[in-house]
Design a protein that fits this description.
The chain has 561 residues and is an alpha+beta fold. It has 3 domains: 175 residues, Formiminotransferase-cyclodeaminase, Chain B, domain 1 (2-Layer Sandwich), CATH 3.30.990; 166 residues, 2-Layer Sandwich (Alpha-Beta Plaits); 203 residues, Four Helix Bundle (Hemerythrin (Met), subunit A) (Up-down Bundle). Helix content is 51%, strand content 14%. Strands 1, 2, 3, 4, 5, 6 and 7 form a 7-stranded mixed beta sheet that branches. Strands 11-12-8-13 form a 4-stranded antiparallel beta sheet. Strands 9-10 form a two-stranded antiparallel sheet. A hairpin with a 4-residue loop joins strand 3 and strand 4. Helix 8 crosses helix 9, helix 13 runs antiparallel to helix 16 and helix 15 runs parallel beside helix 17. The longest helix is centred in the last third of the chain and has 42 residues.
Length: 561
């Protein structure tokens, strides 16, 4: 899965649109970065910007925006209602997909170091990027705000993590952090009562409700030995919630911030609110996601609700998303468009159409055209994806076969494995064409001077090695597909056993086709030590594929004897 992180910098300017645009222009100047939202606040005199991209792209874009903000925002003249201590006040990085929090912290530190050394701004690291527990809490790091920053920086206790320990009136300081993805999520109720909605919110939110003697709303507060109110914790960790009435829709909602969806995912929050609402005689009618959500959150939700129905989860992403939307009523208050609401889809929206996104007819016509790509490598990967898809189909059919209800989970697991293989092969359809284009680009480099000739030769070698690696990966992934095909030929729905056989044949054709691509790309580098090893690996994979295909076909043909 491609690594994607989100960045949500807060700039201390919310009134001058021209200043804000000059900052966001810096973000959009970095290829691959997608600007998702710009939210200026006049009263707070603060703008919250949201953008996403690969880690390296996001760090570069954030740095350029922070540098611009340091040049055009003067903190000595700033006024606003929101706590702040710098021109760029905070800059958190948030893992979205394909990257861990630990890896995100490394990028946060890289960004912080660049800000401190290249721009010369004092930098404090907070939340997961903090170097000490004392600095985890942003409110503590920012205590004293801009007005108290000069005194704070003079204290050895508050020496910045990066940058100078000196007060710079124009820029102030910045807090750079790494935090979990926050999802704003509202659940709709069949009531207009804010009081009852709040009761449910207190039931579920982590902080819970204050303990009272007698009546939970009007009784005397129970306090601890230090005079602080005693709290009764709610049932959901990492959740903040409140009940309110939405006049526009004429219903009450539970408004939640899910501050760590790896601990409390969206679907778990939904089900828990349903449970607590039902206990109070109230029904949940639907819900809404405010802002964007990572793809994996929707896929996990779809899988969760399919498992509750004891149905296979090895289905297309679009099907999982549809199940999630319908199960949680995400379209009750308005249409839920995955292309607009899911971060990864937003990021890919402006890219050129991938081969894997074409219709079968369009892909065939593109292959048949005068262009040399897509060629045999992409077609081989596509054949492999279709072979894995057939094996997956048999698994899904088997999980729903009448009389096999107790085996649904067994076949669901096989379907998930098959789906993962077909998705990897589908990605390699485009990767093979990209690899070919890299070779063409390398051959097109200038070669007038000795230096240019040297650079061109190195680029051709690197591109050629990549063009060998891709079909080799296709062979390796396709070989994994035989395991699913064999299991389905052996134990799957007997009415679909021929499909498992066709799947194995397609996987074998994929391996043979990819092997031809390995060999032709290796012609000019056959003496390269790395290529020698890759050719040996390819021979082994080819032999393995032939053996596995024969095993599957033997199992299939037993049904016809």
């Amino acid at each position: 899965m491609k690594q994607i992180i989100e960045c949500v910098p807060n700039f201390s300017e919310g009134q001058d649109i021209e200043v804000i645009k000059r900052i966001t222009d810096q973000l959009e100047s970095v290829d691959g970065v997608k600007l998702l939202d710009v939210d200026p606040g006049k009263a707070t005199n603060r703008t919250v910007v949201t953008f996403v991209g690969s880690p390296e792209q996001v760090v570069e874009a954030a740095f350029l925006a922070i540098k611009m903000a340091s040049e055009i925002i003067d903190m000595s003249r700033h006024n606003g209602e929101h706590p702040r201590f710098g021109a760029t006040d905070v800059c958190p990085l948030v893992p979205v997909s394909g990257i861990s929090m630990e890896e995100t912290v490394v990028y946060a530190h890289q960004l912080a170091e660049r800000i401190g050394s290249e721009i010369g701004i004092p930098v404090y690291c907070y939340e997961n990027a903090a170097f000490s527990d004392k600095r985890k809490n942003l409110a503590i790091v920012r205590s004293g705000e801009y007005e108290g920053l000069k005194e704070k920086l003079a204290s050895p206790e508050w020496k910045p993590d990066f940058g100078p320990a000196e007060f710079i009136p124009r820029t102030g300081a910045i807090a750079v952090g790494a935090r979990d993805f926050l999802v704003a999520y509202n659940v709709n109720l069949n009531t207009t009562s804010t009081r009852r909605a709040n009761a449910i919110a207190f039931d579920v939110r982590e902080r819970g409700r204050t303990k009272r003697e007698g009546d939970p709303f009007t009784g005397k507060l129970v306090k601890d030995a230090h005079g602080k109110p005693v709290m009764i914790p709610g049932s959901l960790k990492e959740v903040k919630a409140i009940g309110w009435f939405i006049e526009e829709y004429g219903v009450a909602q539970i408004s939640m911030n899910l501050t760590n969806i790896s601990i409390t995912p969206v679907h778990v929050a939904f089900d828990e609110v349903c449970k607590k609402a039902d206990a109070r005689g109230i029904r949940v009618t639907g819900s809404e996601l405010v802002g964007l959500v990572p793809l994996n959150a929707m896929l996990e939700a779809g899988s969760y609700f399919l498992k509750k129905q004891q149905r296979s989860t090895g289905v297309a992403d679009s099907e999982l998303i549809k199940i999630a939307v319908k199960s949680m009523g995400l379209d009750e208050l308005g249409p839920f468009d995955p292309q607009e609401k899911i971060i990864e889809y937003q990021l890919n929206k402006d890219k050129g159409k991938a081969l894997a996104d074409m219709s079968l007819a369009a892909f065939m016509e593109e292959t048949a055209s005068e262009s040399p790509a897509p060629g045999g490598g992409s077609v081989s990967a596509y054949m492999g994806a279709m072979g894995a898809a057939l094996a997956t189909m048999v698994a899904n059919l088997s999980s729903h076969k009448r009389g096999w209800d107790e085996r649904w989970e067994e076949f669901s697991d096989w379907a998930e494995r098959g789906k993962a293989i077909q998705e990897r092969l589908l990605r390699l359809v485009d990767e093979d064409t990209h690899a070919f284009n890299e070779i063409m680009a390398a051959f097109g480099l200038p070669k007038k001077s000795p230096k240019e000739q040297e650079l061109r030769k190195a680029a051709i070698e690197a591109a050629t090695l990549h063009a060998i690696e891709v079909p080799l990966e296709v062979m390796s992934v396709a070989c994994e597909g035989f395991e699913v095909a064999r299991a389905m030929a052996e134990a799957g729905n007997p009415n679909s056993v021929s499909d498992a056989g066709v799947g194995a044949l397609a996987l074998h054709a994929c391996v043979e086709g990819a092997w031809l691509n390995v060999k032709i790309n290796a012609l000019d580098l056959d003496k390269h030590p790395k290529v020698t090893l890759m050719l040996q690996e390819g021979e082994a994979l080819r032999s393995n594929a032939s053996m596995r295909k024969n095993v599957v076909l033997e199992l299939v043909n037993q049904n016809f004897d």
